[in-house]
User: What shape does this take?
Amino acid sequence: MPNKTRPAALESRPSSIEKAIDILFCFDPQHPQLRLTDISQQLGLHKSTTHRLLSLLKKKRLIMADAASQLYSLGPGVVELAWILLRQQDVRTVCHPYLERLRQSTNETVSLSIRLGDRRICIEELESAQEIKYAQTVGLAAPLHVGAPGKVLLAFLPPGELEALLATLPLTAVTPNTLTDREQLLEELATVRQHGYAVSVGERALGASAAAAPIWDGSGKPLAALSVLGPSHRLTSKVLPTLGQQVQQVALEISAAFGYRPPRAPQNAHQRA
Assistant: This one.
């Protein structure tokens, strides 16, 4: 049989991905802008290889180039990725005491989710102390149309952004209870906006229920979804509306910590008098 073991020299040879990542780390506070020759010499790469990798990074908005000076620098995509990380850390730090209080008052699992593209990501979770409980994994991604947290993150998007997102969002069924009809989903999102919270029963996992409410930033934009998760035999359809209101109240307290102020309801003539 032929020997399929790769030579050691090939095993240690950096891949194109590694080379591209190395290019990003060429930039530092002392060298925020670099020429192609600078990067090529620093990494020991041929100019044609360096140019090809820079073109790919530029396409992904991780690198930008000044046509006049022919200098490269880090692109807006790097800033966006860094902002996601920083926002996660800030949100988790601010929210933690409120999550702990909500977990103690409900005795159920409590989680935080943010939107990333057409998916939601769990960035924090405090598990229930009960023997039978429902929990997900921090870092777990799920489709936006699935479950209470996703519906909250969808419902409060600006109408134009919501319409554009739903035009490309595949409404795939995760369980038999997942909303896969676009009109039915839009009706559900309207109900979420009316109530200020969302509920779900078995939409992401059969036997699991949840209630979620939006956390707002200081400019009035949805920052994250606060959720309480648990087995459906405890979080029944009768329990969920009251739980949703409880989650909504805590979410508003967290929002206030981020500088959010709810809009005042317009007064009628009698109230003004």
